[in-house]
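Thread: quick sanity check before group meeting

JM: Hey all, I'm pulling together slides for Thursday and realized we never actually wrote out the predicted structure for the chain we discussed last week. Dropping the sequence here so it's in one place. If anyone has concerns about the input, flag it before I start.
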Amino acid sequence: MNVIVVAAECAPWSKTGGLGDVAGSLPKALARRGHRVMVVAPRYGNYAEPQDIGVRKRYKVDGQDIEVTYFQTYIDGVDFVFIESPLFRHIEGDIYGGSRLDILKRMMLFCKAAVEVPWYVPCGGVCYGDGNLVFIANDWHTALLPVYLKAYYRDNGLMEFTRSILVIHNIAHQGRGPVDDFLHVDLPGHYIDLFKLHDPVGGEHFNIFAAGLKAADRVVTVSHGYSWELKTSEGGWGLHNIIKENDWKFSGIVNGIDTKEWNPLFDVHLTSDGYTNYSLETLHTGKPQCKAALQKELGLPVQPDVPLIGFIGRLDQQKGVDLIAEAVPWMMDQNVQLVMLGTGRQDLEKMLRQFENQYHDKIRGWVGFSVKMAHRITAGSDILLMPSRFEPCGLNQLYAMMYGTVPVVHAVGGLRDTVQPFDPFHESGLGWTFDCAEASKLIHALGNCLWTYREYKNSWEGLQRRGMTQDLSWDHAAEKYEEVLVAAKYQW
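JM (edit): ok, ran it. Output follows.
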């Protein structure tokens, strides 16, 4: 098939979270399965690889003609196309920032330009056209694309056989606004019914994700657990009834990971400063060396027998940072070391610094984000904490298991799907889970984890080895996506 993945971010050029990783990795796995694949993303900065191909187009956005320029490169079997426009310039550090209407205009322009890419952008000298074509749009930022495909083209006898899939990465962000926002999106008047949604608290409003869910031919979310949660009033964030009505076109597919970038044997961030690459065969020597290097780099006492616990993520309530904060006094009594990397709410950043000052020989807080440090914490830690209140898929627990780092997670969304609880009687499972976002539940799970780490070395090594021998690559996920592509194209 001809597949066009459309996303507001794409690693390594732009990334704020898991969506960027998906847009950078899934297309390569689909290409390996024989499909012709393109990624379309905004051009926020002066990227080295993509080149201006000389194509210019103008699109009307809120009554104003705006020119876009297309940049293209070909990497690992995938065409990467970047849309350059004045609306995307100078926001590289905050790609989702700005006023509500500023964001809406950017997304309108992006979707209008992306849906016409197969006609106007020659890749390898040949445009994709609409033959055997499926768009994969990602999150609310691109949820206008299935609507534009229908309103501009299919309703007018064009691109009749082109299909669209909408992927939900995080339902909490929906593109909401007052009903009058419909006047800005340049659609026939009768399309307003796709966007109208009644909220028990806020009343009737305009909702881009709601329209995309209705217009798309198939809907995917990033884990089986999250696909179930989205149909509940708590997990659906007001869209649960629409999702239940469209259940027939709904699938849950767990994300994969880039097993070149996230592989302890080839990790480029483990080649200096005392770190070392390691594999399943050298786990006994390599991982302790990385732990000692991490302790030394962060100024913690180098103590091989003290459990080192890591946290990597945004500092906000969703990620359960407050639960870790409640559990810190208990942890300090357990003789452990805690390393936390992240940025987010200012009060939580301040709290991180206070913990470091209070427990200087046991806690390190890295406020900000560093790709290198994320890799080194993943390699050097014994345990990874992920107490997220909700987590559509989660990638850090997958990275951790690849590195022989044992996860302790809240059993929600993709965390429940990917971390099977340790069973000491059958020596099975991959880590520890807890079933409620409470500090006491986290403490109970982490307590059992620490007990196993200290007293049952063979069981601990079994957990590490089972985690490291899983197939967490995108190839498995791509096979599942292929099934959805076929369903979108041929099953009606």
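AS: nice. Residues 268-470 form a domain with the Rossmann fold fold (CATH 3.40.50.2000). Residues 449 and 455 are 10 Å apart (CA to CA).
JM: adding both to the slides.
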